[in-house]
Amino acid sequence: MRKPRTTFLFPPLFAALLLPVVLAPDPARAQSTALSFLDRLIAGGSHDHPFFPILLSTLLLLAVIVVVVLWLLRRQMKKQTGNSMISQEHYRHMVQNAGDILYLTDDEGSIRYINPVAETILGYRAEEMTGRFYWEFISPEHRQEIREFYIKQRAGRIPKTYHEIPLIRQDSRTVWIGQNTQLFEDRGKVIGFQAIARDITNRKRVEQELDITRKRLTRAEIISRSGNWEFDLKSKLVFASEGAHKVYGLPEREWTIPEVQKLPLSEYRPMMDEALRGLIEENRPYDIEFQIRRPDTGEIVDIRSVAEFDRDRQVVFGIIQDITDRKQAEAALRENRRFLSDLIEHSGTLIFVKDAAGRYEMVNCKWEEVTALSRAAVLGRTDDELFPGPVGRQFRRNDRAVMEAGVVQEKEEILDTPQGRRFFISIKFPLRGEDGRVRGLCGVATDITDRKRAEEERKSLQERLQRAEKMEALGTLAGGVAHDLNNVLGILIGYSELLLNDMPAESRLRSHVEKIMKGGGRAAAIVQDLLTLARRGVHSESVVNLNTVIQEFRKTPEFENLRFGYPRVMIRTGLAPDLLNIKGSPSHLYKTLMNLLTNAVEAMPHGGTVTVSTVNRNLDRPVQGYDDVREGDYAVLSVSDTGEGITNADLKHIFEPFYTKKVMGRSGTGLGLAVVWGTVKDHHGYIDVQSEPGKGTTFTLYFPVTREAPVAAPEAIPLSEYIGSDESILVVDDIPEQRELAAGMLGRLNYKVQTAASGEEAMEVLGGHPFDLVVLDMIMEPGMDGLDTYRKLRRIRPGQKAVIVSGFSETSRVQEAQALGAGEYIRKPYILETLGLAVRRELDRK
């Protein structure tokens, strides 16, 4: 009966013994103790123990507790197993139906699992992709690059990476994925990786489109030479597009404000600062133009900048554009307009525009100058109002013909101006509006008055030529007659002298012979005049000064006879003290002067004044008068009277032999002016005659000068007075011969001489090194004249000394140059002494 009781108690006793084993700190030892105790209990000897009931009760209680705990644990395990199965199913469902590709590979990159989403994205079935290497689906041109990327991830044990990969679909289309990749490791060894990839094809397409758009915008900016920029007020940094970098010539990085502020030219900086302040503080429009100096090329560039201010972000953003070409085009357009305007305004022809009613819309300066009417008084008025009468009707008639015919027409028109009648060739053409209708006309009128006068001058030249030919023929005739008369007069005068020598003093016939001899002498004088007329009488080539001729003539009986015979005539002289010498015959010059004075006093029967003057004159260009005077240096003799004058009809014949209004034999031989003509021509000179009836006559004789000194120069100044001391002199003259003459003279005076052919060349020479003195011609063409040249050289050489020379009389411009600091004025032609003294005095002037 005891054995069954023991059997009944075994399970709870086993549980009671097992619990300490499970809960004991040392399970092995507790297990050994429990088994020992169990053996003893089974053996049957322990139920008589006094603590057996207590122990049995305890064991029973523990057994109940263990059973309850085990039941609870089993229930919890079932619940957790169910939840785990639900979670696994949920995870499997998520993987299978996720919107992204999820796949697993081994450590070699072979795909071990891939979810069904890959089938939709790549077009392959999951079974077709499983077992293949992942890079087999990558675009070939990117395959190596991406493999190296993941090899580096595995070698570097980088847990997670992200990369964008182009995959090739089954239909050969490219799909872009963005892939997050995580390594799998086991005990420090990489066993594969897990990847989650999202289809980013649309995003890449948008990015590519944006990139293309950005490139196009950049290209457009570069082509249009523009760019955009942003200025962050907080960071003080400036973002700029590629176009802006190219416009400003700054490197492709973020700019700083100080760096950008260095670019504009200094004169624009205040304006730009004020514009930016107005935009930020007052929200004023920001639209400015300025110039910068590009740091990469150093060139000056015109910029237009437009900006706005984002107050929320505290950013100024704007656009800049290189408008250099536009500015240059605008400048060129303005220049073209100015050129055309100047061309029209300052044209030598009259240019005008009229509307259909004949009212003036535009006239140029030449039109104002010729008509003496201001454009303010002309515009809006018609020819009938401005030129009433035949002139206005003529203009209007021609205008209507042009507008009605609608074609260009050329007419000769006449206009009476304050300066006299003028003749024009007018070319008029119609002006049409946008509708093609004639709305007015434009005219270009060329003044042909000078041409008409030139035609008259040509006729006059022909007359002078004919006159010269006549004088030549008369001279030839006179020479032949004089030759024959000399033979006759030689016998007459010779035998008369023999008779006088043989005749006693008291003979009553002596007076008759003397009269014959005196008459023969007068006849001989006439023959001499004929020889002069024939231009065979000047044999002397002496160096002569006209002043000396005049002064010596004033001491002769002929001059006293003129004064005695015409007491109511006053004879005055005005002689140039530095008059240059000429080469010729003093006796013929005496005769010429006597004939001119005789002619002058006889033209004033009621008294008057005769003025004899001399002057040096340099002619840069020919002068037309009674005789055409060529350019050159001349000693000029003038004889003027206030007498009756000569009519134009008589003026053409005054130098012809025996053409005279005087009584032959009483007041002249009729050869006086013919002798003057012949003498001047023998001296290679020229004659001009100016006369007006009732106001007098002026004879002007031009004799070429010589640089030779007379045999006996009275009161010559010693050369030591004006010799140089090796000073440097620059000679500026536009006439080559004049430069060489001045350089030769100054070289002889011991100066170092250099020459310049114009004011511009003189500025270049003076810019290189200084000169002690400048000999400066006053009249130079083309280019700067002496005054303009002296003004400029004073700027670079403030203390520069100069001597002014000119072939003309002293003018206001000469005086202005002297007021600026120039020294003496020398009139061309000059001699060595005149030039040397002027240069010496200027060099010695403090």
Question: What does this 3D model show about the protein?
Answer:
With 846 residues, the protein is α+β, with helices and mostly antiparallel strands. It contains 27 helices and 28 strands. Strands 17, 18, 19, 20, 21, 22 and 23 form a seven-stranded mixed β-sheet that branches. A six-stranded antiparallel β-sheet has the order 8-7-6-11-10-9, with helices on both faces. A five-stranded antiparallel β-sheet has the order 2-1-5-4-3. α7 packs parallel to α8, α16 packs antiparallel against α17 and α20 runs antiparallel to α22.
Shape descriptor reads elongated
Range of helix content: 40-55%
Which blocks of ≥5 consecutive residues have pLDDT under 50?
A: 1-10, 13-19, 21-25, 535-539, 663-669
- Return the structural class: alpha+beta
Q: How far apart lie the N and C ends?
A: 167 Å
Tell me the major beta sheet.
7 strands, mixed
